[in-house]
Structures are given as C-alpha cells and as structure tokens.
Design brief:
The chain is an alpha+beta fold. The protein has 4 domains: 1-31 and 188-220, no CATH class; 41-97, OB fold (Dihydrolipoamide Acetyltransferase, E2P) (Beta Barrel), CATH 2.40.50; 102-187, no CATH class; 222-341, Aminopeptidase (3-Layer(aba) Sandwich), CATH 3.40.630. The chain is 26% helix and 32% strand. It has a 6-stranded mixed sheet. A 5-stranded mixed barrel has the order 4-5-6-8-7. It has a 4-stranded mixed sheet with strand order 3-2-1-14, with helices on both faces. Helix 6 (257-276) packs parallel to helix 7. The protein is globular and about 70 Å long. It starts with a strand and ends with a helix.
C-alpha cells in the first residue's frame, strides 16, 4: 500500500499502533502493562534522599521505585507530584520529574512556567500572533505551549484542546491527597499515535495488523541483522552497558563501498532504534574510511535524527573511530515485549 497509514490494532493481547510508510513499518508503539506509562502523573512518597547525587528514591502507587533527579527540599515520608518520563532499565528505578506537563494534540499546559509560547516550527508571524491571541490568558501560575500541529488546525479544535488540558491541569494540581495515587494515566499507543503522528490515513479495522503484515515485520526485528542492500548489513545488539551497532560492507571491497554502506546505515539507524525501542548510550562501529569522508555521514546522521521523535544527542566520533550518541529511554525494548508475547 502506497502512502502513509496509522494502523491501530492489537499485538499478542497488547494495544498497539503502527506507523506504516509505503507498506514498511516506520514506527511502533506497544502497550506494556507491567510498568507505569510514560506521561503518567502520580502522587508519590519519598523514601530516601541521596544528597551526594542530588536526587531521591520515591515509591509510586503500584509499588514501583522511582528516581527523581534534583529533588529540591524533599524529605523522607513527604509526598511529591511527579510525572513518568521514560521506562526503567532492567532492575533500575522508573525515571520521573516534578516538572509536570499536560500534553494535548495542539496545546501543552505547563504549571509553574508561565507565559504563552508558539512552536518554532510555525514561522508565519501573522499565524503566531493569532495563536497567541487565541490562547488568551493562561491558567494562574501556568503557561501554554502551542504545538506545530496548530498550523492548519481549526480554531475550534485548538480551543477545545486548550480547555481540556487546562481542566485536567486544574484538577490534578489541586488534588488534596497525601497517599501514593495515579492521578492521570499516560496515553496508550492508540491515543499517543493519534496525538503525535500528525498525518496519514487511520486504519482501525479488526484485521488491520494482518492486512499490513505488522506481526511479520515485528518478528523480523527479533534478529539483530539489518539488510542495507548491495550485500552490506548492520547488526544492532544490546549489552548491559550500551547498544552496539556494527556496520559491514559484505563482499564489496571497492573504494566506494565503505561510504555507501555507512550512509545506508545512517539512513536506517534512527528507524531501527525507534522500532526496537532502544535508548541509552549507543556506539556505532561504521566501516573504516578516511576522516575526510565523514562530513556527508555526519550530515546524514543529523538529518535523520532531527526528524526522529525520540530525544537524541549526537555526541560524535571517539578517538578510536567509533560514533557515539545518547538516546532517551522512553519506550519499552521490543525484545522484552517479544519475549513476553510468545
């Protein structure tokens, strides 16, 4: 099938959403009921403060341990309002923040950060001014961010989103409770996809995943090997410390083979990490080539990750000729879900 489609369905009993481009899986979200969803807002109890590290361990409503960095003035036994920011590594605490965001399709309410801001992706000055006027006066003590999706959206849609997010923020921030409690759940895959994947035909029929062979494409991701064409490949393997990516030219030994394989790997890298749900430190062993050829490779990496929805910092080349990047852990590793879905 040509074009872009948002496919909503079910995978092994888990709610799932797939973004498909010309029949190829481009993004994937699978719900994991074994851990708090990213975006969930909880009242949590402080258990232990680590002054040397400037953070604190908290207890979440489900009994999970959370880690709050920069826990300002928090003491054991006190409660704190926190938001889950990602998924926990194996055996580690769930990452949370006390800087709460109420994120809608078109607007984000930011308690404690007053002001009205418009996405930098919207460059039309007249539109920016209209959006600021449309937002009006933000809720007391809070601010508003108008997202890039406001461009082309109906004013009524933006106003509805603003009202819904402002109402949710008012209810949560005014909550008087003291015991650990889930106050607002994070979005499931279907809601997240409809909010964040801005364009594409929405397909939600019962057989949608079968029609697009989503299960087959997920199964292929169980292998670490990625075909780059022309005999080249890369292997994506997870260790306890980092994600290691190795690029190979295969049987092609021509002078241009290294750059060709490396550029193909760069174009695939963000997609493979995204689909596999991988984050943390990533180290890429590109095929060895002269330093003078690195510029087009660097440009390709910047372009690919600029368009990727997962926050990524491109660290650059090491003295040993490896390429490093750091990626936010905001998705459950696909390998863990595959193991649980069998």
């Amino acid at each position: 099938m040509k074009g872009r489609a948002i496919v909503l369905g079910d995978w092994h009993g888990h709610e799932a959403a797939a973004l498909v481009q010309d029949g190829r899986l481009d993004d994937l979200l699978i719900d994991d009921d074994s851990a708090p969803r990213p975006g969930a807002i909880c009242r949590a109890t402080c258990e232990r403060v680590l002054k040397g590290q400037g953070g604190a361990f908290l207890r979440l409503p489900g009994g999970e341990t959370a880690w709050l960095r920069a826990a300002r003035g928090l003491k054991p036994g006190e409660t704190a309002l926190v938001q889950v920011t990602g998924v926990a590594e194996g055996g580690k605490a769930v990452p949370v923040t006390d800087r709460i965001l109420f994120k809608g399709r078109h607007a984000i309410i930011t308690p404690g950060a007053p002001g009205v801001n418009v996405s930098r992706a919207i460059r039309d000055d007249a539109l920016r001014a209209r959006l600021v006027a449309l937002a009006g006066e933000p809720p007391e003590g809070a601010g508003v961010i108008l997202r890039s999706s406001c461009e082309g959206a109906e004013e009524a849609e933006i106003l509805l989103d603003l009202r819904l997010m402002a109402d949710l923020a008012a209810r949560v921030m005014a909550d008087p409770g003291t015991a650990p409690e889930l106050l607002a759940d994070g979005d499931g895959p279907h809601d997240h996809a409809l909010r964040e994947w801005s364009a594409g035909q929405v397909v939600a029929e019962a057989d949608a995943f079968e029609r697009f062979d989503i299960a087959g494409q997920i199964a292929a991701l169980a292998s670490p090997l990625v075909d780059l064409g022309g005999g080249a490949s890369m292997a994506v393997e997870v260790t306890r410390a980092l994600v290691a990516v190795d690029v190979n030219t295969g049987g092609d030994t021509t002078p241009a083979a290294a750059l060709k394989a490396n550029l193909a790997a760069a174009r695939q890298l963000a997609r493979q990490l995204r689909l596999r749900g991988l984050g943390g430190q990533v180290v890429v062993d590109f095929v060895n080539m002269p330093k003078g050829q690195r510029q087009p490779l660097d440009q390709s990496l910047r372009s690919v990750f600029r368009a990727d929805p997962v926050e990524t910092s491109l660290v650059g080349w090491t003295a040993m000729g490896l390429y490093e990047l750091s990626r936010k852990r905001e998705r459950v590793p696909l390998a863990r879900l595959i193991a649980g879905g069998r």
